[in-house]
Amino acid sequence: MKRSAGLLAALLLPGLAAAAExxxxxxxxxxxxxxxxxxxxxxxxxxxxxxxxxxxMVQKKTYDEMDAALQKRELDxxxxxxxxYVRDRDRFGAELLVAPQSYGKPVYFAYIIVPKDSKAQAxxxxxxxxxxxxxxxxxxxxxxxSYMVAKRFSKxxxxxxxxxxxxxxxxKSIEQVGKGELDGASVDSLIYDFVAKKNPSLTQNTRIVEKxxxxxxxxxxxxxxxxxxxxxxxxxxxLKMHEDPKGKQVLGELFIDKFVVPQDKDYDSVRExxxxxxxxxx
Length: 282
Known about the structure:
The protein is of the alpha/beta class and 282 residues long. It contains twelve helices and 13 strands.
């Protein structure tokens, strides 16, 4: 009976039925330290309030899980890393929506970090050591350090380092390096800087020994089949968020200046690294 009533409501009151369906926005766990979850939830709530529609935050542990959910339309919108965007665009046509801008520019870096008391002064000093990656598809957490190692030492990471492990979270990589459980790791500069300001006890026992060139910042992407009208509304809300006092406060908690419109070419350097790495492995 309830199912029939629900079907009747959907037929007679389609607007009401649509309003009850939440917009599901994915957030990859590796780009969101535990300390940031409450702030990202505030972003979701803000978007929902402006949209006049419930918004549900969906976390996935790996980029593979996030990619699959976005491709299946289990999500319409997702905060992802630069690497997954490039692959998702090629694989199923994922498209850019917006990107955050922090510290005045829509870019970020890979930091190579070591324990504070480590003798290592550069990536070269970590040869034969235990090194931490985040996710196999992460740009700063896997691709960038792999590229650095292969370019400089003509070896893949598995042959250069003594052991490679995946933590599946930038904050876990930071924590494990600080505890000496890892001899080094490559982490997202935005996350490291956030943790350093919000919870300095997690970074105080680490040091940055190298900083990569800048890369296009992790974007917010959508499935190309997302309803165009809804997509336009969500994009407009993100882009105007910094103009509203409440929105500006929410962004400030994450050290985000504002959301901007990214260009696909911003991620060409990621494509070039992936292509070069593939050529070396082939």
